[in-house]
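Re: the multi-chain job from yesterday

Posting the exact lines I submitted so nobody has to dig through the queue logs.
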Amino acid sequence: MPRLLLFIPLALFSILILFLWKGLSIDPRELPSALIDKPFPAFKVEALLSPERKLTTADIVGKPVLINVWATWCPSCRQEHEQLLRIAQENKIAIIGLNYKDDRTAATKWLTQLGNPYQFNIYDESGMLGLDLGVYGAPETYLLDAQGIIRHRHVGVVTEQTWQELQAIIKSWEKL
Amino acid sequence: MLKLLMIMAVLSFNSVHAAIDTYEFKDADKQARFHELTADLRCPKCQNQNLADSNSEIAQDLRQKVYEMLDADQSDSDIVDFMVARYGEFVLYEPRFSLQNSILWLGPFALLIVGLFVVLFLVRSRSKNSKIDSAEVELDTQQQKRLKQVLNKGKK
Amino acid sequence: MIPELGEYALILALGFSVILAIVPLYGAASLKTIWMEYAKPLAKAQFFFMAISFACLAYAFGQDDFSVQYVANHSNSQLPMQFKLSAVWGGHEGSLLLWALILSGWTLAVSLFSRGLPLDMLARVLGVMGIIATGFISFLLWTSSPFLRYLPRYPRDGADLNPLLQDFGLIVHPPLLYMGYVGFSVAFAFAIAALLSGRLDAAWARWSRPWTNVAWAFLGGGITLGSWWAYYELGWGGWWFWDPVENASLMPWLVGTALMHSLAVTEKRGVFKSWTLLLAIFAFSLSLLGTFLVRSGVLTSVHAFASDPERGFFILVLLVLTIGGSLTLYAFKAPNVKSESSFGWFSREMLLLINNVFLMVMAVTVLLGTLYPLLIDALGSGKISVGPPYFNALFVPIMGLLVVSLGFSTVARWRNTSLESVKQQLMLPGIISLASGLIFPFLYGDGFNVRVFIGISLSMWIITTVFREFKGKFRSTTSITEKLKQLSPSYYGMMLAHIGVAVTAIGITLVSVYSEERDMRMAPGDTMELADYQFKFLGTKSVKGANFVADQGTIEISLDGESVVTLYPQKRRYNVKKSMMTEASIDPGLFRDLYLALGEPLADGAWAVRVHYKPYVRWLWLGGLLMALGGIVTVFDRRYRKNDTQKQGVANA
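And the result, C-alpha cells for all chains:
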C-alpha cells in the first residue's frame, strides 16, 4: 500500500476542521426567512386600535415599510421598543406593527404607556398571518420594498446596528 | 452573556416535555398520517424537536394547522409543501433528494460499494498465496471424516 | 476556601500532567530508565490531585455554597442530597471536571495493571494520556473553571437543577458514558505508543484488547442507560431520536465495535495492523469530536450544554493537536509492509473485514447525517435538517447486513473454510430463522408483516447460529462441566454480546411495529381501551414532593375485567424554576410496558391523557446490557493476566 494512501485520513480530517471552524461562527438556531424575494402573504385582518378597520395587503404596499412582529408577552420586544421609537422619529421609513397572538387590551395599554412607533397595527390574534409569514418567535422585523416584496428579515431585538444595516439595504435600492 | 445563556436555558427547558393534544380524527388512516407528519416535521424554533413532541406555541399552532389540513382532505405532500413554503427546508427531518443532498443520500451506499470492493481486492490478492492452504483445508475435512469413522468404530 | 483548594488542586494536577506528558516520553525516546520510571508515580499524583479537586466541588454542592457560580446555577437548598451531588456533573464545567477525573482514573488503572508491559511501552502510553490530560485540564482552568465565585454579593439560594435532570438517570448515565468515552483514550494511547516505538507486533494488540473491551462495554452501557432514561423521563415514550448528542455517543461505539473485532484478528493472525491502528485513533477521535459538538454550540440539541463559541474554539484547537497530530504520526510511521499471512475467500479474516466495512459505513452514515446541516450551512447553501427518517432509512438496512454476516462468522475458520461445511452447518439455522420470521407475525400480530419477518428472522439467525456453535463445542467431550470450565471468558463474552445483539434487534423490531398510542380527553370516570387493556381515569389530586407540587392522576388498568395495576402519572410544578414537567407513570413488563402521561388540564377536571402500549421495549435495553456484560466478561480471560508470550498465537475462540 503506497505511503500516500496513509495520508488520506489526515487530509479528510483537515477538511472537516475547516468546516467545524466555520461552523463556530454560525448560529444554528437562526433561520433565514423562506419568503425572501417573495410577496408578503395575502391577509385580511383587523387593525389593533380600530377594530372596525380591516387591513389588507393594499395597506402595506406603495412605499418601503418595516413590519415589526411584537407582543406584550415578549420581553425582547420591550427591549427594542425605544429603538423603534427612535426610528419612527427619524421618519425615514414607516413602521407597521404585527401584534402577534396577543391580547388587545394589554397591547393597547402597552402602546399608550410606552409610546406608539407604529403607523398602524395588524392584530393577528390567531397567529395565522404569522404562520403564513414564517414567524417562529417574536420579535421579528421584515423589510418590504415598495411593491410589497419581502427583502430582508431580522430576528431578534432591533438595535442601532440593525437600523444601520436596514438603511444600507434601502440605500442600495435607491441606487438601482 | 450569562443572562443570555440563562434565558436560553430557561426557554429551552420549557418546551421539553410531552405535548399532548386531543385531536380526534374520524378515520384511523388520518390519525396515522397525523402521527407521521408531526413526527417528520421539525419545530422551527425548538432545540431539535419534532412537532409531535414540542410544547412551544409555534409547534402547537403548526400541529393545529396539520390537523385542519388533514381534515380538509389535503395530501401529505400538500401539507409538507405548505410548511416548506413558510419555513424553508429546515423543517423537513427527511431532507429532499436534490443535487445538494446527493452526497448525503448516496454517500453511504457508495462507501459500502467501495468498501466491499476493497475487501474483494484484498482477499483476492491474499488468496493467490493460499492455494497450498486450501489444499490443507481439503485434507482436513477428509481427515476429519476418517477420524469420525474411527471414533464411531471405537464407540461400538 | 474549599473551592479555592479545588482550583489549586486542579493546577497541581495540570502540573503533573505536563511532566507526565514530557518526561516518560523523553525517557522512552532516549532509553533513560529512570525517566521512564517516573510515569507511574506521576500518574498516581495526577489522579490524587484530580480527586481532591473533584471532592472540593462535591463538597461545595453538598454544603450549598452558593457563592460558587457553578453551584448557584445548578443547585438549590431544597434539592434532595443525591441530586445535589450528581448536579456536580449537571452542567458544562462540572461534567468536564468529571471527564478529566475519569481520564486520570484510567491513567492510574493503566499504571497499576500493566505488569506484563515493557517499561518503554508503559512510559509512552502514560505519556500520551498525560498529553491528553494536559489539554483537558488546561481547557478547564482557562475557560471552564467550576470554582469561580460570585463575590462579594452572592445569591441566597441557587437557581435549581433542571427538573428533567432531577432523576436517577443523572446519577448514573454521565459517569458510565464518560468511562466509555474516556476509556477509548487508552486504546488510542497504546496505538500512539506503538507508532512511536515502531514496535507493531501482535503483542500491542493483545495489550490493547482488555482496555478496549472494557471501555466499549461502559460506553454501550451508558448509551443503553441514556436511551432508557430518555424513555421514561421525557414523557413521549421514545427511546432514540438520532439527536446530535445521541449520535455523538453512538459513533465512537460503532467504531469501537469494529476496533474490538479488528484487534482480535491482529492479535491472532498479525494482519491488518495499520487498519487496526487507524481504528484506535479513529475511535478516540470520535469521542473528542463528540465533546466538541456537544459543548461548542455548533449543533442544536436538547441535550447540549449551554455553549460558548470561545470554548468551542479551544476544543477545536485540542482536536487539531490531538487528532491532527496522531494522524500525522500515523501517516509517517504506520507499517507499509504487507504481512505474510494469507487467507482465502471464506475465512474469519474475510468476515472480519466485512464486519469492519459494515460498521464503518454505519458510523460514517451517522457522522454524515449529523454534520450535513453544518456543512451545507457553512457553504452558505441554507439551512436543512437531517433527522430520524434519514438515519432509519440508511442505518437499519446496513445493520441487517451486519447481522447476516454475524451468523456466517460462527462457522468461518481462520484462513479458509470449505463452502460445503458452511452450507451443511448453516442450513438448519437458516431454515429455522426464516420459519420463525414467517410464523411470528401470525401468532403475535394480525398476520404477515415484512418488518417483523426480517427482524425476527435476523434475530433468530444470530441465536440459532450462536447456539449451534456452542453445541458444537461439546460434540466430542464426555464431561459437560469440564468443557464448560474449559471454554474461555473470551468465548463466553462473545456469545453474550452476540446474543445481546439479537435481543436488542427483537426489541427494536417489535416495539417499532406493534406499539400503540392514544391521546384522549378523559374526565374523572371515563374509560379508554387500547391493545386489549382498559384504562379508567379516576381524577387527580394534589401532592407535594421534596421541591415540587404536583397534580397526580390515578388510572386503573385492567385486562379482560381483571385488575392489572394502578398508575399515578404526575404533572409537576417545581418550586424554584416554576416550570412544569410531566412525570410519566409506567408499568414495566418483560413483554410489554404500559406508559401513561398527563398533558394539559382541560375544563371540568378533565385532562388530556396519553396512553402508550409498548411491547418488548425492555428487550432493547436488556440486549444492550448483555452486550456490555459480554464485553466485561472477556477481560477475565487468563491470557490477559499472565505474562506468557508463548500463548500469543493460540486461537482460543
